[in-house]
Write a structure and sequence with these properties.
single chain; 352 residues; mainly beta; three-stranded antiparallel sheet; 11% helix
Length: 352
């Protein structure tokens, strides 16, 4: 019994001694400072893509103003590219306005890469100060990006189309979550168009269609060697909606296509999950004590809404009744190019 009493007494003394070794942090103020710095960093990191990459989502929905026959089926691939401004590919650490608590490990090279800037070795050093004046520093790696020729933001997705009775055609895009390195990507879209040319002309070579299309595109990245925490995720997501009318004129195996549309898009960049800044201190007996300086959940959310008019011009090459190739240029707030290759089934009356 005496041994049990001594063990309990020793445990109580150890807890008391450890508690005396704890130091205090102004966690609320540190969290605000950290979020401010991450918000500034996220704005620079996403600058070339937040207002650009969604423009590829609304390309080539109307590869031709001529619709498929009822119950005819087309399967294809749509490849698009938007082009970012070259002055947004990198940004200067010293010109962002970070607080004094955030520094670069190698201050001699202040260049930070954006999401289109490629790989980087840059490392941040974030410092917190306890109430007793002791400062603790921790390294946080900067996000890497990817690089592409001419600062292009590429996108490729399968598209499936089905002709319906009543001069309608429904299309869908579906790309399930696929993972490339540490990034997962998915895309889903749906659209419906109608042959409105039958109300205006009997010319079999002249086709007019009108339609509406919606697409959601998402990228997710799980940060590595960031801060301690749970369910950490960096997400880029775009919702795009397009209402468009297209006109095409067929000249043998070629169709010249023009389109005018109105788009609206919502793009967002989010840093999700829980992030904890932990420091190691020493108790009064010299034993290591891990303390939390601050924690934050879902710290960053940046969004941008875009809307406007888009004018498109395309050339459609009809390879018989079974295939087609479409090349297009789309003029909008961000100009894009597209290519679409499709294969058709049960569409043998097309063009008659």
């Amino acid at each position: 019994m005496r041994y049990i009493y001594l063990a309990c007494l020793f445990s109580a003394i150890s807890i008391s001694v450890s508690a005396q070794g704890l130091i205090n942090f102004d966690s609320e103020e540190i969290e605000k400072d950290f979020i401010k710095n991450m918000d500034l960093y996220a704005a620079g990191y996403t600058a070339p893509i937040l207002g650009s990459f969604s423009f590829s989502q609304v390309n080539a929905w109307q590869y031709d103003a001529e619709l498929l026959n009822p119950w005819a089926f087309r399967i294809g691939i749509v490849a698009s590219a938007a082009f970012a401004r070259p002055d947004n590919i990198t940004f200067n650490f010293n010109q962002v306005g970070f607080t004094d608590n955030l520094e670069l490990k190698e201050p001699g090279d202040p260049t930070l890469v954006s999401a289109l800037g490629g790989e980087t070795d840059a490392i941040f050093v974030y410092t917190v100060e306890a109430d007793n004046g002791t400062r603790y520093a921790q390294e946080i790696p900067a996000f890497a990006g990817f690089s592409s020729p001419n600062n292009a933001i590429p996108n490729a997705v399968p598209q499936f189309s089905l002709g319906l009775p009543g001069d309608f055609e429904v299309s869908a895009r579906f790309l399930p979550f696929i993972q490339i390195d540490d990034v997962t990507h998915s895309e889903f879209g749906v659209g419906l168009k109608h042959n409105v040319g039958k109300y205006f002309t009997d010319n079999e070579k002249l086709k007019i269609s009108a339609g509406a299309f919606y697409d959601v595109n998402q990228f997710n990245y799980e940060p590595v060697d960031f801060l301690e925490g749970e369910e950490q995720n960096v997400q880029l997501i775009s919702n795009a909606f397009l209402v468009e009318s297209a006109v095409s004129y067929r000249l043998g195996f070629l169709s010249v296509v023009g389109a005018l549309g109105v788009y609206t898009m919502q793009n967002s960049f989010n840093i999700e999950g829980t992030y904890r800044y932990e420091v190691e201190t020493s108790g009064v007996l010299g034993q290591p004590v891990v303390q939390e300086a601050f924690s934050t959940t879902d710290p960053i959310s940046i969004s941008e809404n875009i809307s406007g008019l888009r004018l498109s011009a395309a050339l459609n090459v009809n390879l018989g009744d079974w295939a087609d190739l479409n090349l297009g240029y789309h003029l909008a707030q961000v100009s894009t190019v597209s290519a679409s290759l499709g294969f058709c089934l049960f569409n043998n009356k097309k063009g008659e």
